[in-house]
Design brief:
Length: 318
């Protein structure tokens, strides 16, 4: 074999530095933090799904924290006594991102634990095509809950989040320029990106397998939380009493609400030992349309055009 062929075989994955802060590399069409490569590979090859697993999937900043809290509170609403674990643990510590923390003791322990109250609740940001083959081939039984969000609000939420966790990647006290954030979002070169291919993968799968893949939009949850949480609970096999008897739905919504979680001591001043970032960084405003306060008309137009192009023909609107 000539040197050209050999080079092809050993070519390392493409790499970039995201926001002057973290190295990311492209694997199977999506970008990941380079330092999580080993953990991600282990998750993809070694994870053993169970038929009663619930896997929350999302692109970062689309409502993961909210949906994890909702699923947790729905699944455990019968067995909750006085102790509410979310008062002690941030949802991202309780349900760690599998491809990031797969090799940690906590996740290894969580994965083998016999679950109480109906199945393991798990979470990943991996695109559908990058999920462990065992998950994609697991057939009926194990469930995926996917949440997504308007791309411009996702981008703005991401801008706030990464500015906080990377501590001003532009240097000094300045935030990273929004132009740069728009560029990385639109080019797709960002952790777990590209956004559009990510969301379309789950959307298509939810159309093929609606009983196994539940597709949820952040905006729908905000607009009519009771309706969508009722649908989610039915999908999870834990339906609420009929409409009109709303006490339990309201309780789950309150327990999972931004207002409540944000004010808990654990989410105020604690830097998570597991994620190494302040728990507070997962909670901000939760407002639909907040992008209007941050994007110029030109930036918004650029994202809108890309959204139209990428979602054309899919039947999905965001
Ligand atoms: P904003 O930055 O627009 O406020 P993720 O959980 O995927 O990281 O997404 C974070 C976004 O969800 C943030 O949006 C955050 O404020 C919002 N969020 C976090 N917890 C929430 C909750 N319980 N209810 C509604 N929104 C929530």
């Amino acid at each position: 074999m000539g040197s050209e062929g050999t080079n092809k075989l050993v070519a390392p994955p493409p790499k970039e530095v995201f926001w002057n802060a973290r190295e990311i590399c492209q694997i199977d069409g999506f970008w990941f933090y380079a330092d999580f490569k080993e953990s991600m590979a282990a998750f993809r090859s070694d994870f053993q799904p169970r038929s009663d697993d619930v896997l929350v999937t999302s692109f970062p900043k689309t409502g993961t924290t909210w949906v994890m809290a909702l699923c947790h509170n729905i699944l455990h609403r019968d067995d909750r006594v006085e102790d509410d674990v979310l008062t002690r643990m941030n949802p991202h510590e309780l349900i760690p991102t599998l491809e990031v923390f797969f090799l940690t003791d906590q996740v290894q322990k969580d994965l083998v634990l016999e679950s109480s109250g109906g199945g393991r609740l798990l979470q990943t940001h991996l695109a559908y095509t990058c999920l462990p083959e065992a998950v994609k081939n697991s057939g009926r039984g194990s469930k995926i809950v996917h949440v997504t969000r308007n791309p411009k609000d996702t981008l703005v939420s991401m801008w706030h989040f990464y500015n906080k966790v990377f501590e001003c990647p532009a240097g000094g006290t300045s935030p990273f320029p929004m132009e740069g954030a728009v560029e990385s979002f639109c080019s797709g070169v960002l952790p777990w990106g590209p956004f559009y291919e990510h969301v379309v993968g789950y959307w298509e799968e939810s159309k093929k397998r609606p009983d196994d893949v539940f597709f949820l939009k952040y905006e729908d949850l905000c607009r009519d939380p009771k309706e969508h949480v009722r649908k989610l609970a039915s999908f999870l096999g834990k339906p609420f009493p009929p409409v009109g008897d709303d006490e339990e739905v309201e309780k789950v919504l309150w327990l999972s609400s931004l207002g409540r979680l944000k004010e808990l001591e654990v989410n105020k001043n604690v830097v998570s030992k597991l994620t190494q970032i302040p728990n507070s960084s997962f909670f901000r405003k939760g407002t639909v349309g907040d992008w209007k306060n941050y994007l110029t008309p030109q930036m918004a137009e650029r994202v809108d055009q890309l959204t139209q192009l990428k979602l054309h023909g899919t039947g999905l609107s965001l």
